[in-house]
Amino acid sequence: MKTPLLTDSCCDLAPELLQNLDVRRVSFHINVEEKSFTDNHQINLTALLANMRACKSAVKTACPSPDDYLQEMRSAESCFIVTISGRLSGSYHSAMAARDMALTETPDKKIHVFDSKSASSGETCVALRIEECMEADLSFEETVENVSAYIDSLHTRFVLVHLDNLMKNGRLGRLKGVLGMMLGIYPILGDNGDGEIVMLEKVRGLKQAMGRLADLFKDNMDTQLRKTTTIVISHCNCEERALALKEQIQTFSKDLKKIIVVPTGGLSTVYANDGGIVLAY
Predict the structure, then answer these.
(1) Which of 20, 83, 95, 256 has the fewest CB atoms within 10 Å distance of its CB?
(2) C-alpha closest to that of 6 among 65, 82, 94
(3) Does the pLDDT of residue 177 top 60, yes or no?
């Protein structure tokens, strides 16, 4: 029997991908001043972006509660859960608390919570890896071992066009942010290997930044990984730019396993903002 897969809503999954993977999701909640959004398949991303642009204060988000996870765990004999990095959100800790409660109620359940140490398309990569393990008929324990090793090798890279949310949330000094936008400087961010997002480089010009994002992929990927790793590109309202990045990456090798392009969900939209690109592999 197939083990159910549960993710939080930072996992970017297009509707068709969500259906093919048979994934269940628990929702983040987003508050933009007086306007509230539940991050599910019905979220109006156009309205979210419009409210974010008009908002002068920080956008607030709330992760799923332990009870949100627990309700899903109770309905299955075993399950895998994938969350956004525990360094970025309380979602992982909510899932772990729910796991403890579920195992207290039913000690023979098999439940494993994966901290993706990533976000957005990185979390999608982890979900896809779990699906591959299940399709290969790996045992529960073998899947945990395989996916845990995969997470340790995962790379997540971002190019942001708008820095407003970073400034509003205090993650980037307002003066630096304003000067950067005026000078056409685009930050390339990425994971530090331990689930935190750090500034990797600053590049002048969006075209150059996207080219550098592709080069970082080329630098990181050896021949074997190109044949075995699925690449996921999340985009916030900029599909054309995401498809151009996909084409550029495809020029590096004919051996690439698969490149998937998906729109950002609600929480990833808050992180990436309008025009943002998130590349994970």
Answers:
(1) 20
(2) 82
(3) no
